[in-house]
Amino acid sequence: MYGPGVVAAMGTAGVFAFLLGLFIAAVFLSLAGKLVGIEKASIGRSMIAILGGGIVPA
To answer: Are 46 and 34 a contacting pair, CB within 8 Å?
Structure first.
């Protein structure tokens, strides 16, 4: 029913949606860290914390 191009496009869109959601969550977590007074708060560290928080409980 669907060709390989459509399936690849849906997969690519899913990856971009995941990365965009991760980036938005990291921005808010980084802002919260800076607001609380954490000196090393950055977007990169926030992304690692979000990914780690999703993997560790599983």
So the answer is: no
How is residue 2 annotated by DSSP?
Answer: -
* The pLDDT value given to residue 46: 95
Do 22 and 51 form a contact (C-beta atoms < 8 A)? yes
Tokens representing 30 are: 């980084």
DSSP-H helix ranges across 1-58: 4-36, 43-55
Please state whether the predicted TM-score (pTM) of the whole model is above 0.85.
no
User: Quick one: 46 exposed, middle or buried, by C-beta within 10 A (0-12, 13-18, 19+)?
Assistant: buried
Q: What is the DSSP letter of 1?
A: -
Tokens of 32: 């919260």
Neighbours of 22 (CB within 10 A): 15
Q: Which amino acid type is present at position 39?
A: E
The two three-digit tokens of residue 4, written as one number:
């390989």
